[in-house]
Amino acid sequence: MAPKAAKPEAQSGVRTQDPEGTRHNIIEVASEEFALNGLSGARIDEIAARTRSSKRMIYYYFGDKEGLYLAVLENAYRKVREGEAKLDIGGLSPLDALRRLVEFTFEHHHKHEDFIRMVMIENIHHAEYLEKSKVIRQLNVTAIGTIETLYERGVAEGLFRPGLDPIELHWQISALCFFNVSNRATFSKLFGRDLSAPKVQAALKRNSVDMVLRYIVRPEKLPTE
């Protein structure tokens, strides 16, 4: 009888009694590696070294480099959607819920620059890998559903302008918050102002909320200072 193939951790000399923890650790480290170097520039050897695992173990969990990249991309989207789910904006007024959603998106993107870089990298690949993921599509259905429900409540109460598209609203909120991270370095250098400074970021967040409110809310319903 032929001997059984050894598990990857046994062959690499690395023992793990927590497969899910190991998988999560690999994804976290790989997120930094892919965000910094892109899909083509990321090195599995570097990820293995930083996680004290082996290339064989990584391939055991994720199949290949592209499989790991897709898992990282899914995890990035999962984090932002899980954060949105925890907002519990259903109990807020439509105006307060909209304000909180924009604030959360701005804060999340500011704190998770790797997410912004991963989205930029995926756009370079024309969303080739995102298209393969049922997980990401389902996560974003939930995101649009949240905005749609919020928007419909606001319209029903006579607070929001009718006839707006929830997907376009998501686009516009994302655009303001995404650009704050993706182009902050270039804007800072071009115009000689540190846009990463806490006071500047606080002002940009307030202005982003104000711009979204002024677009969606009926002018006569806008809050006054």
TrEMBL record:
GO terms for molecular function: DNA binding. InterPro entries: Homeodomain-like_sf (IPR009057), HTH-type_TetR-like_transc_reg (IPR050109), HTH_TetR (IPR001647), NicS_C (IPR041474), Tet_transcr_reg_TetR-rel_C_sf (IPR036271). Residues 20-80 form the HTH tetR-type domain. It comes from the Bacteria. Residues 43-62 bind DNA. Keywords: DNA-binding. Residues 1-23 are annotated as: Disordered. This is TetR family transcriptional regulator. It comes from Devosia insulae DS-56.
